[in-house]
Design a protein that fits this description.
This protein is α+β, with helices and mostly antiparallel strands. Helix content is about 35%, strand content about 15%. It contains 15 helices and 17 strands. It has a six-stranded mixed beta sheet with strand order 4-3-2-1-5-6, sandwiched between helices. Strands 7-10-11 form a three-stranded antiparallel beta sheet. α1 packs across α2, α7 packs across α8 and α9 packs antiparallel against α10. The protein is globular.
């Protein structure tokens, strides 16, 4: 019997991070020149630290801070990284490990190992930061440090600026770096796209394996377990992009199901829909894929109605995506497409334009259409400084309101859910009750929901869907009955490739 995977973990060239640093340096120098500022000083970032579980000595599996990972590709905790704005040199500062590290945790690697592995100009220890930066500085006055500090518009948390002993003797700038570095992350290089494509390939393949092995009477977490096993066993993906959502039946209308208070633990039954939102991460870069299907492998008429409404919206958006297109317009297109299908299915009544105006779409799809994707599942850069968030229901949940740009990777994830907390008020509201066919909708109470999510790269004249899952009803039913599903492997370009 052959392997259940056609894939194997690719070697990722560190050139990916060399390119990222050069991109930042060029953008940053342009910013300083336009601002009539000297091209001196250091961009300085602090990497992530290992975290213990509460007060115990249990160390959680470390995953690097995302901005630091983007620039340096460093797997290990406790590092700092600097880029000399004047010379372009990159410097890593490694933690000075105690001798007994070698007894408990393995070889203490020399500076030369990190210099070669991470393709930086030089490596020192973290207790030498102040001395080294002072020695390397060639400008007037005190050395200036550009530190990372700014708002993440998805989490409403701020980036943590680097801090070290002796920083008080430096000039610091907390404003310039964050918007420039964030915008660098928005547009992906060929190297980045290849890694995101691999994360999509292995995750798509895992979703297909889960479809094939889903049987009535299983528990939701068994689907999660199969996905995690496949992506780690065959893709080397130790990390997931986010906590898996394995929702069946009415749970599939809980948008962020799968968390500790709703832990993917229901036994699913014949006639249930499954909504599986799962994506693996490889070399920091993520995927974010949702598949919806009946757990018994056969769509009913009602399941087909809702599923095809969402699939039509998904496909309409992808066929309209290209540089310059407004993401708000794409969300409204998805809503309108779903509303038209629900009207054809006799669940809604009246004029679809009037429904869009009254924000009926937000009753069925309360979340945004998608989000930027990269090193974070919700990659930063969705709202530029000063950009207004839409305020209307549904639209206010958009994670970006930007126009699409060539090089963006963005998720397309329309859904249609039957959520009592939204449906009942809308059906009782004087303004909106006229649009609902109560009798027809009543049989969908407890149905849950459907979401279809693909990761899409915006190209120069359109877009490329990086996700390779069966989407049409006939394909899903065939795969669940054992039919093969082809996935082509993807090669990451060598360091000599163009970016």
């Amino acid at each position: 019997m052959g392997s259940p995977s056609s894939l194997s973990p690719p070697e990722v060239p560190m050139q990916l991070h060399v390119v990222n640093r050069k991109k930042l340096l060029d953008s940053f120098r342009d910013h300083l020149s336009i601002s009539s500022r000297n091209l001196h000083g250091f961009i300085l970032l602090q990497g992530g630290e290992e975290q213990n579980r509460h007060c115990t000595d249990h160390i959680e599996l470390f995953r690097q801070e995302s901005y630091f990972a983007y620039l340096f590709g460093v797997q290990e905790p406790g590092f700092y990284g600097a880029i000399d704005v004047a010379s372009g040199d990159s410097i890593l500062f490694a933690p000075r490990l105690p001798a007994d590290y070698a007894v408990w945790l393995g070889e203490i690697k020399p500076s030369a190992y990190f210099k070669e592995s991470y393709m930086v100009s030089s490596v020192y220890y973290t207790d030498e930061i102040a001395k080294v930066l002072n020695q390397q500085y060639r400008g007037p006055g005190k050395p200036l440090l550009y530190l990372l500090h700014g708002l993440n518009t998805d989490s409403n948390n701020f980036s943590k600026p680097a801090d070290f002993e002796g920083i008080d003797n430096f000039e610091t700038d907390l404003n310039a770096l964050h918007p420039i570095l964030t915008e660098c992350r928005v547009l992906k290089s060929a190297f980045e796209l290849a890694v995101i494509q691999f994360a999509n390939d292995i995750s798509s393949e895992a979703h297909v394996e889960v479809m094939r092995k889903t049987k009535v009477g299983m528990k939701e977490y068994q689907l999660e377990s199969m996905f995690l096993h496949h992506t780690y066993m065959y893709g080397g993906c130790r990390h997931c992009s986010y906590t898996c959502i394995c929702a069946t039946g009415s749970n599939s209308s809980v948008l962020h199901y799968g968390h500790a208070a709703a832990p993917n633990d229901r036994i699913f039954e014949d006639g249930d829909m499954a909504l599986l939102d799962m994506g693996a991460e490889y070399h920091f870069y993520g995927s974010d894929i949702t598949c919806s299907f009946p757990v018994n492998g056969k769509f009913t008429d009602d399941q087909s109605l809702i599923y095809n409404a969402v699939l039509l919206a998904h496909d309409a958006v992808i066929s309209n995506m290209r540089p310059g297109v407004s993401w708000v317009d794409m969300h409204i297109l998805a809503e309108r497409t779903i509303l038209e299908s629900l009207k054809k299915g006799n669940l809604l009544l009246g004029d679809v334009d009037a429904m869009v105006q009254e924000r009926i779409g937000a009753v069925f799809i309360p979340h945004g259409l998608g989000h930027l994707l990269g090193i974070d599942t919700h990659d930063p850069g969705g709202y530029l400084k000063g950009a207004e968030r839409p305020k209307e229901p549904g639209l206010k949940s958009l994670r970006t309101s930007r126009e699409l740009l060539e090089g963006m990777v963005i998720t397309v994830e329309p859904g249609c859910y039957f959520i009592d907390a939204l449906l009942i008020p809308a059906m009782e509201n004087v303004q909106t009750s006229k649009f609902f066919n109560r009798h027809e909708i009543s049989r969908f109470r407890g149905f849950g929901g459907v979401r279809i999510e693909s990761d899409v790269y915006v190209s120069c004249d359109g877009c490329v869907n990086m996700t390779k899952c069966p989407r049409a009803i006939k394909d899903i039913e065939a795969v669940m009955a054992g039919a093969p599903w082809p996935i082509k492997t993807t090669t990451i370009p060598s360091s000599s490739s163009s970016t």
